[in-house]
């Protein structure tokens, strides 16, 4: 006897499709609310920033000719102002230096030194491959206690939220000095999913790709050169 299988009813397919769309959307929404509600404490003016041990400058694109993208240049400029204003004692630049031909941290350090920040006060984190790596390494490798995170406004909530979950006393100074055009718009859209990844990193206790021996932020920054 031939057994005929019943085909799924169209209504059942519609419900299944709706669930497949609704569940991920709900997860994205919840993660964004969690991050945004737990990330207050940023200012837009250097003068309004509280004092912190360290300015944590998060990396961004370095162009193929070695120059800084507009976003990165603005972050470095704000960090230099914070140091000159006495808002921080040290500067920690954290970015991608996974390849010899691409170097965010040394690019930032050279710009800060050129802006008058003493070389011995500019620490370089060469394994800040993403925001979570940067904040965990700031706490565990550089033994920083309090930071002023320096990044653009679209990135700031996630950066502060992650920094606090890494054990840092964290506030932020927004580095929105220019209009970043289409790149800025793309970055804002990516942040929606970036916040989901952030919640996942914290929930699972993800470890940075690299840690390494301590380089205390209270010492001479030239110990972090690379």
What is the mean pLDDT?
91
How many separate helices? 6
Total number of domains = 1
Beta percentage is 5-15%
- Quaternary structure annotation: single chain
Provide an overview of this structure:
The protein has 226 residues and is α/β, with parallel strands linked by helices. The chain has a single domain, classed as 3-Layer(aba) Sandwich (Rossmann fold), CATH 3.40.50. Helices cover 43% and strands 14% of the residues. It has six helices and six strands. It has helices at 10-37, 70-84, 104-114, 131-140, 156-165, 181-204; strands at 42-43, 52-58, 88-94, 122-125, 146-151, 169-174. It has a six-stranded parallel beta sheet with strand order 1-6-5-2-3-4, sandwiched between helices. β2, α2 (70-84) and β3 form a beta-alpha-beta unit. α4 packs parallel to α5 and α5 (156-165) runs parallel beside α6 (181-204). It starts with 9 loop residues before the first helix and ends in a 22-residue tail after the last helix.
Walk me through the topology.
Blueprint: H1 10-37, E1 42-43, E2 52-58, H2 70-84, E3 88-94, H3 104-114, E4 122-125, H4 131-140, E5 146-151, H5 156-165, E6 169-174, H6 181-204
Parallel strand pairs: 1-6, 2-3, 2-5, 3-4, 5-6
